[in-house]
Structures are given as C-alpha cells and as structure tokens.
Write a structure and sequence with these properties.
Length: 220
C-alpha cells in the first residue's frame, strides 16, 4: 500500500508532465520530488488510478480527479501565501507542497472564494476550477476582488494582474499598474476610470477584468 501523501505526489507529477506535453514514466520521475519505484506505479495501476502503455503513463478518470484536487490545493495555497501574505514564490511553493495533502475541502473553497477565484497560480499555471468557482460563491469576506467589483468611490491596492495576453500585461505595467499600487475607481461607464499616483486612466471592461485588488476598508 502506498502512503496517501506519496500517491498524491506521484499523481501531481503526472498532472505536471501532462501540462508539459509529456506522458512518459521517465518524465514523471523527473518531475516528482521523491523517487518512484516500479512497484508503486503497479500499485497505482491496480488501484485504478493510472494506465500504463509501455513507456507511457495516463490517468484514469478517477486518477485525474484525485490529481486535480491535489493540484488545486497546491496552487490556491501558493496564491494565498504569495498574494495575501506576501511570501516569496519559492517559500510559498515549499509550504504548499505540505498543505496540499491536508487542506479539507471546505477550507479550499473558502480560500478560493477569499481570493476572488483566481485562474492561475503566481507562476502562471492554471488552477483547476471548483464548484465554488462555477457557482461564483462570495459567502466569505473576500480579501481580493476584481477591479470591476469595486463601486465608484471604492479603492484597493493592486494584488495581482492576470492578463489574457502578455501584450496587455506590458501595457498595464507601462502605465504603472503593478502590484502594490493603490487605485481608486471613479466610474464604470462608459469606461472604467481609475485614479492612482496622481494619474487618471480609462480602461475597457475586458482590461479592467485583468486587475485584482485587495479592497480597502471604509476607514481606508
């Protein structure tokens, strides 16, 4: 029997190799922080989590769902530690490697809602969606919200930017819209007008949707 944590590490490594367009056992072993024995792979196959075809290794439906949960927990933890607690990405990654094995589902959902349902980790890797994302839950006190969720007169500090393309990211940073910059929303129509560092800027809605802010309290 493979320990739960070791099995999850292997499944996570298979997920990461899939994202990289690699599907071999050799690639999985390169991505995994622990050594993987042939007997452990045989056990995962016997448990109905993976399929092996010569040098290739693939998920079963059950295995992919298990891996999806591990990856989601890891990347949401990285977001929380990096965007909210301001830890360096490498430190956040190390802590997330431990937290991914112990976070209960309700806490994962709350973290995702708290962060405004981020689509990518700090390193730019896609975060698997959860039921809370599909239902767009807002039942916890959200610390980070999309710029478009602010009301005119409300303000926040830019937490992170998730642009739909690199050109847009370059455009926003050239204007001075970077993490740590306080912004205030003046209006939403016909464009999103914000003020920051004595500068006023009008943004189309799809551009404003790329910006996530740590909302300021009414007291400032």
């Amino acid at each position: 029997m493979i320990p739960k944590q070791k099995a999850e590490e292997i499944l996570e490594s298979i997920w990461n190799t899939d994202e990289a367009g690699e599907y071999t056992v050799e690639a999985v072993r390169r991505h995994c922080p622990e050594e993987i024995s042939d007997s452990e792979l045989e056990q995962l196959e016997a448990d109905g989590l993976v399929l092996r075809e010569e040098a290739r290794i693939l998920f079963t439906a059950e295995g992919k769902e298990r891996a999806r949960g591990v990856v989601r927990r890891h990347r949401l933890t990285e977001c929380l530690l990096t965007f909210v607690l301001k830890l360096p990405e490498d430190k956040a990654h190390d802590i997330a490697c431990d937290m991914e094995h112990i976070l209960p589902p309700e806490m994962v959902s709350s973290i995702c809602t708290l962060l405004g349902h981020p689509s990518h980790s700090p390193s730019g890797k896609a975060i698997p969606r959860g039921d809370d994302c599909r239902e767009n839950q807002t039942t916890v006190n959200v610390a980070i919200v999309n710029l478009t969720d602010l009301r005119p007169g409300e303000s926040g500090t830019v937490a992170y930017i998730q642009p739909k393309n690199h050109e847009r990211l370059h455009r926003l940073t050239s204007f001075g819209i970077v993490p740590g910059v306080p912004v205030e929303l003046h209006q939403k129509y016909p464009a999103y007008c914000i003020k920051f560092e004595e500068t006023e800027l009008a943004l189309d809605k799809d551009v404003a949707e790329d910006i996530y802010v740590r909302k300021h309290s009414p007291e400032g």
